[in-house]
């Protein structure tokens, strides 16, 4: 044995083990980061779906207090009519059974219950004083209110929606979320909704209810316990530990299962300050990381074995050394081929995304050009009269010059200049509308796209009663002028088509402002949107018009999303009401 080689071998083994350990750690870290990123994207989509379902459940009941607030039995019952109150009890019981509301009851001006859907039960609310409840105080002060709390009689958690009624009373509807919580529990992830203060209200883990995800002062705890009726043992910290972070995502562990890791995702519910939170187990990520590390270890072992064999055989026979080198080369070729294949797949995916973007923009451009086809006749009519007037002014001007009346001829020239300016504005707006959008989102005056769309559709709008908002000076939004014009032209063209058979057609544009957004509405008095297509209105190729393609609203919604805004259909008593939400600079 060559004893001089022994220390060298030990050194190479130590170096190899150090490099292998580093590669194993690095491969695991990269694999975990990528897997968590993918899981985060998937779970965020699932969280958004649960948020939408939760929001729809609440919205289902918001109009119930409004509808009941003008009920004749309610108004008569508030005056003391016992017959009306008995009829109202029966009506509330039927409504609760039909709608699925937990309870519906009516309070008088002092906050005392005078009628209830459970009036015939042992736990009837009739006669109970609820003037201490926040939902009563909010409705008394502002006309309506909402509060999440435990029931004082039922001791069941729920959301209370209240509204002031005609006759000085108040209608209260209670919603309970047992069915949603049970559905969430069956799905596997831990799902819960927190208030603005971080208090868990609705949860797939009932033992977490009324715990907190943020520290709350002692004084605040007393106030919230009184509002929620949650008891002295409530408002303890949620039993989660290790509020770590993985690329901006929280990783937590239950206190009773410290080895179990969960990915924490949060989305807004639409209720002021409320958040829907979802904790997804990372065991799939951990299995993937173990698989990647095992594959890396196997690869390193193969590589080390090849190197070791090649070195050993090099000292014995040249032929065996060559074979070992060939095997090492083959392994390297496999790695190179796989790397090249992955790079090709990445290039193909990037190319596909580029083509998709190009096709999407082409579809928007085609939509604008299709709109131009409908607008051209109106533009021709709009410019025909100024052209005829220019011809008349020019002929009269020539005669005036021949007669030597230069001052009158100069007046004709001024009139011609004014008419050409008018034609120039119309044709310039039409050219701008036909161009492709730049894609650049910038702070632009809102008046520009509004006036441009009205100018493009001027001749068609002449047959309707058009009501325009008073736009504040300097009002700006984050948008692209041409693309915002395209959305407005699309919405107003749809309104014009809907108003073709209406006796007194009217279109109204309105603007509402808050700190961060501008709400621009397009409202008509037509027949409205067919209920059969309302739920799929922004789905491609869904339309209620025989000649429609079902792409205009899809493209408009896509444009608004690209500009950081939204397009949605709002409920309306008559006609259609579309609302654009735009960000302010």
Automatic annotation (TrEMBL):
InterPro entries: HATPase_C_sf (IPR036890), HATPase_dom (IPR003594), His_kinase_dom (IPR005467), HisK_dim/P_dom (IPR003661), HisK_dim/P_sf (IPR036097), Sensor-like_sf (IPR029151), Sig_transdc_His_kin-like_C (IPR004358), Sig_transdc_His_kinase_DctB (IPR017055)
Keywords, sorted A to Z: ATP-binding, Cell membrane, Kinase, Membrane, Nucleotide-binding, Phosphoprotein, Transferase, Transmembrane, Transmembrane helix, Two-component regulatory system
Primary enzyme class: transferase
One Pfam family of this chain: HATPase_c
Catalytic activity annotation: ATP + protein L-histidine = ADP + protein N-phospho-L-histidine
Keyword Cell wall biogenesis/degradation: no
A molecular function GO annotation: ATP binding
Transmembrane segments: 9-28, 292-310
One GO cellular component, as annotated: plasma membrane
Subcellular location as annotated: Cell membrane
Protein name: histidine kinase
Domain of life: Bacteria
Domain Histidine kinase: 378-585
Membrane topology: Multi-pass membrane protein
EC numbers: 2.7.13.3
Main location: membrane
